[in-house]
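Changelog note: in this version the structure field was regenerated for every chain. One regenerated record is shown below for reference.
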Amino acid sequence: MKAVSVAEMRSAELSAIAAGAPGYVLMRRAGVEAAKLARLFLEKHHMRRVVCLAGGGNNGGDALAAAAELDRQGVPVRVILTVPPERLHDEAAFAFRDLSGAIDIAFRSEFDPEEFLPDELLLDGLLGIGFTGELRDTAAHCIAAINASHNPVIALDVPPGLNADSGEAATGGAVKADVTITFGGVKAGLLKNDGIKLSGILRYAPIGIATQKDASGVEVYSDSEARADLPRFDGEVYKNRRGRLLVAAGSMGYSGAAVLASTAALRAGAGLVELVTPVRPFAPLPAAVIVRLNGNLETLALADGVLAGSGWGNTPSHWPVLLELLRSDKFLVLDADALNLIAHRPDLWRRRSAPAVLTPHPGEAARLAAAFGVKSDGRPGLAVGLAAATGAVIVLKGPHTVVADPTGNHTLNLSGAATLATAGTGDVLAGVIAGLGVALGGDAARAARLGVFLHGRGGEYGSGGFISDDLPELVGQAASDLQFGFAGI
């Protein structure tokens, strides 16, 4: 699926309506999806009520449709309109007509942060994807009040004040959303510039609009792609069919990395995980992990894949292990200090052709780029260039992590949350990709894309006090939810 421009989204909407899907039906579908997400958010955070903020356009109609659905489900809801009801048109007018008389409805051309109680969730439909240019004074005042309230916000389609094409916020400001649910197609502006900072957790909701396959935007990886990539095993599966992974990780100073990576690999689907490490980790390991402290790789021949580098520390003592791995024909995931060693001796990497995944953060990617002579002015281009130069799948970590394969294909991941900005989550990601890789028979690109998505969704599930130790179990929960078509938050 590709991200879309506003013009492409408008065209797709008109095509859907011409094919027999009435505009109000599409609006009600958007309302149902928004209500579902709002209810999950309300329950997770023990909040009391949803306040639906509705402007005069179709985005306001989406908020009104969500209010009607929440009310039908028995969820406490109130509505604040920023235009008089008589100024609502077309589908938005239908949505207002369908509101129950029991719903508290108020009109405010402007409102104050004190308008909202601390335990209220704001469902924001003030401005839609058609916004460009500068904010009117009333809209700017409302956006400022929403941000000043510090109430959690779910934005509908795009955060109000954000240009859905360029991703740039209006001079007068834009809403900083905790979650953005975008309907029918992923708007290009959510994935760049201010859109990354303002959209919070990003959720895509299909509502029956087929966006053009030749859309101009970047390829994105969402729930539907991840569900198709999930490994599915028959009733005769056993541990060896799910893959045997060798993990070469950890050191005296970073033994926890070995624990996180090994645990994540098991949670992600590997049938058996064997950890080779120079020191017994201080943190407890799952009982299912086989631990070898002698530091050699005598069982390499039995493995279906290898993960190496997490927690090694930046020391040349790991060169013999890395060279042995590079000479093998095993599926390989390299992380952290293994990448720094490769950047130091790129000539040794060029001898390898077996399936591999490299998982650099921006600093590691810059060192690899310098080593392999890759030049690029953007993250997608950098990932594509590194993939072409190394022949490996590149996972360039960061907001909307880029996954690029050697053929030039690349995707931007839609899952993820700020909770992931904590020590150890990269070790978990490497373990998830490696575990999936052996479970999927060494399909490096598929394992990387799916692993990145599940890792990001696990981060979305995290709450207050989240640390990387929590993440492997949340990744497993995300995979289970995805399999059965449920997306928590």
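Spot check on this record: DSSP finds 16 helices and 17 strands in the chain. The chain has two domains: 6-217, 228-483.
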